[in-house]
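Sample 1 of the test manifest.
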Amino acid sequence: MLKDTSQHKVFLLSIFLILSFSLMFLSFSQPHLLTNLRERDYFIGEFFNSISSNLKMKLKDFVESISQAKSLQKENLILRRKTEELLFREKNYYPEIIASNRRLKALLGFKEKHPYKLIPVELAAYSPMDFFKVIYIGKGAKEGVRKGMGVVNAQGLVGKVIEVYPHQAKVLLVLDERSKIGVRVQRTQDIGILQGKGRRGVCELKYLLTKAEVKVGDEVVTSGLGGLFPEGILVGYISKIRKKPNYLFQEIEVTPSVDFGKLKEFFLVTEQ
Amino acid sequence: MKKLWIFIGFLGIVSALQFIFAGWWKEGADLFLILVVSWAWFRGWKEGLMAGFTAGIFKDIFFSPLLGLNSFSLCLIGFLMGNIKGEIYQENILTFLLGVGIASIFQAALVSLWLSLFYRFSFLRNFSSSLFPSLLYNCGLCFFVFLIKEGLKAKSSM
């Protein structure tokens, strides 16, 4: 019985092995057999290949999204901490600074500056007689323009109103010899008077002591003294300095920040 | 009949997975071999022999340069694994894994031998490239197959 079983086993195995070998030999001698078979099942292969490549791409995207999510999470954490820090400062630190500033100002006897209002106005005309010294603007007394109002634009101080008509006003530019404005050198806080020098296109900073340590390039701003203009409006930059021995004041030339050749739109400065 | 359908189902799944994974890495696990080894181990030599032949034919059609190449080695492996199972204690996982390892080496050796005879491929190069690292993948996957089978067996006996 055992012999029969072993024989049966060997017989069955031999059949399958011979069948396999025959297939091997057949497909070797006729290579198109396997090719034809594959072509017939081509759609199956294509189907699984497309699944494989899609799955691979999706897996890759998934892994990439995880790694991106990690970096975004890290970035988010940093930004959240920064926001929290800023919120903390806004709630606790800045009001304290503002309050302390007010306290110190009060202690020193400073007054809060009056807030100013800006009225937009356009250029009406240049004066033919005083080109680069006087201009006319398109608003007058009927629109609330008053004599002595300051005129500014985005570049800085332009001049001041010297005559008012019903619908126009005459503005004296800072370049004019008649224009005198209280100014301060921003860096050193030295105070002086700025006077125009007419057609030369520059101004002169007067009454600045020889010992004042100003230098070329320093910003000159309005001092706010006299209440005509708000404090801190840019007027120009120091372009030349001459110190004479035994003289009390130095000679300083200031180039205005405003381009007077391209004037078009301004603001009239008035009290709130 | 039920067993046949189960085997056909497994064969379909294995073919699909082998197709999918073949696009990812060429020298991955040989899922056909795992199916045949497991089937023979748990079902006996006769079913192992037939499962090996059928799975081998499937593998040859889609992945082999020669028809009958894998069916030859897989039916032999199915037959041997089924016979070994009767001789030793089959619930030992280490024996099963050892059997899978030997079957993988046997399969690689037989395929390389036929390829070197038919196409004059270098036996050693082909043998080493087809054996590593698929041997490790095969043993690793069979470990889980054994655990699943034992788990199912324990569940059905409860």
